[in-house]
Design a protein that fits this description.
By secondary structure, this protein is α+β, with helices and mostly antiparallel strands. The protein has a single domain (about 10-105), classed as Orthogonal Bundle (Arc Repressor Mutant, subunit A), CATH 1.10.10.10. Helix content is about 55%, strand content about 15%. It has four helices and three strands. Strands 1-3-2 form a three-stranded antiparallel β-sheet. The chain is globular, with a radius of gyration of 15 Å. The N and C termini lie far apart (about 35 Å). Pfam families: PadR. InterPro entries: Metal_resp_DNA-bind_regulator, Tscrpt_reg_PadR_acidobac-type, Tscrpt_reg_PadR_N, WH-like_DNA-bd_sf, WH_DNA-bd_sf. This is PadR family transcriptional regulator.
Length: about 110
Amino acid sequence: MPPPSDLLQGTLDLLILRSLSLQPMHGWGIAQRIQQVSREVLQIGQGSLYPALHRLEYRGWIQAEWGESENNRRAKFYSLTKAGKKQLEAELKNWERLTAAIALVLKGA
């Protein structure tokens, strides 16, 4: 298995917003989803994940609610707000623009 990749700065917010667009999740669930969907390439540590969740909550893009996890433990579940859905759309457009520009440079255009 190849080593985990470092995320581009700012990409973590996009990955979190995208993960939460599917359903509310607790922090560990978000990290697991990103890891599984990326086929184990992206691994998000707690030291990166929780500050990002707090930042997104402060910006009003996600909201948190206490609930019970699948193993009957108390956990904060995060979900997208209306502003978060708009931000996700903007972030996705920006990501597409950025990756297209990077592809042009890599092709030597």
